[in-house]
Amino acid sequence: MLKTFAVIGDPIDHSLSPTIHNAAYRELDMECTYIAYKVENGELATGIESLKKIKITGFNVTIPHKIEMMKYLDNLDENCKRIGAVNTVFNDDGILRGFNTDMDGFLEPIKRKEIPIKGSRILLLGAGGASRAIIAGFQKENAKDIVIANRTKENGERLAKFSNGIGFNAKPIHLEEMDMLDSKFDFIVNASSLGLNDEKNIIPSSLMDSQTVVYDIVYKPLKTNLINTAKKNNCKIIYGYEMLLGQAIRSFEIWLDQKAPYEAMKRSILGGFG
Ligand SMILES: NC(=O)c1ccc[n+]([C@@H]2O[C@H](COP(=O)([O-])OP(=O)(O)OC[C@H]3O[C@@H](n4cnc5c(N)ncnc54)[C@H](OP(=O)(O)O)[C@@H]3O)[C@@H](O)[C@H]2O)c1
User: Fold this and answer.
1) Is ligand 1 within 6 A of the CB of residue 150?
2) Which candidate, 12, 59, 62, 68, places its Cα nearest to that of 38?
């Protein structure tokens, strides 16, 4: 029987998820299809009803519904509870089960490349929803501490409070204060929106060397200005598309309980960039 999957959100027309998942189904010759479904702010309840009517097997949830979706779920996994947002739903015969794959998706390329996290020091740019999942991931993997650089002071402070609350030592700073940092970091992660619109990199090169992992979760453009700076400084690089791929793999495995075809999904993402 044909299984149907979707991604819901707004805007949704540029989502790469249908491309990635449909490539996986083709590769494994599965009778499945994945669609993008625009659900506007305030329309979530109706959207979910429609998905239930077509007997959707599972769906991803993106902006602006990641938090509101929580109230429509019958149960939530540990990551959802911890992060306070859901991005993957499994329709188990009418019972909606919620998952958050942001954390596992973020960690996936680090683990695939066998880069150690335990005891590491992190500089994180940004303090939004993705940053929260990233902090939960580093804490779970026993990183040492984190400096959170953010544009809006209160948001950085709020996230540092969350981090300290789960036992992961965090210090919030302003973006400009990055110039005064003198220590080296094992990981520098951009989880702000900077780079999406080709903004120039603001993370000082003095913080980067060949031992630094620079991970930019912005995936469009593929090579942001931060990635270009990191290349010049011979850093180890993780691209935003790798997190996107990590999340798609996790969703696939939650819904279909079988190993996802990594290479085929990666090819489809890179093809999607033209
Ligand atoms: N690769 C992936 O799979 C993946 C997954 C999730 C997200 N992302 C990307 O990660 C980014 C953040 O996502 P999110 O969900 O955390 O978004 P969000 O909750 O809206 O947070 C956005 C963050 O970016 C900061 N920011 C926005 N514009 C800025 C500017 N002009 N200068 C400096 N800082 C700025 C915000 O700072 P303030 O607190 O000052 O507003 C905030 O910290 C987005 O670009 C998204 O596309 C990628």
Assistant:
1) yes
2) 12
Asked whether 198 and 225 are in contact (CB, 8 A), the reply is yes
Asked if pLDDT for residue 274 goes beyond 80, the answer is: no
- Given the residues 3, 66, 200, 232, the one annotated as active site: 66
Residue 273: phi and psi, rounded to 5, are -85, -10
Q: Is the CB of 219 under 6 A from ligand 1?
A: yes
Q: Say what the pLDDT of residue 70 is.
A: 95
Active-site residue flag, 111: no
Question: pLDDT confidence of 182, banded at 50, 70, 90?
Answer: confident
- Return the number of other C-beta atoms located less than 10 Å from residue 58's C-beta: 25
186 three-class SS: coil
> DSSP letter string over 74-104?
SEE-HHHHHHT---EEEEETTEEEEE--HHH
Q: Please tell me if the CB atom of residue 137 comes closer than 6 angstroms to any atom of ligand 1.
A: no
- CA 136 to ligand 1 center in whole angstroms: 16
Residue 145's DSSP bridge partners are 121, 169
Q: Is 158 helix (H, G, I), strand (E, B) or coil?
A: helix
> How far, in Å, from the CA of 256 to the mean position of ligand 1?
30
Whole-angstrom Cα distance, residue 92 to residue 97? Answer: 7
% of the chain at pLDDT higher than 90: 93
Question: Domains plus CATH for the chain?
Answer: 3-100+246-272 (3.40.50.10860), 104-238 (3.40.50.720)
Q: Which two tokens stand for residue 146?
A: 């984190």
102 forms beta bridges with none
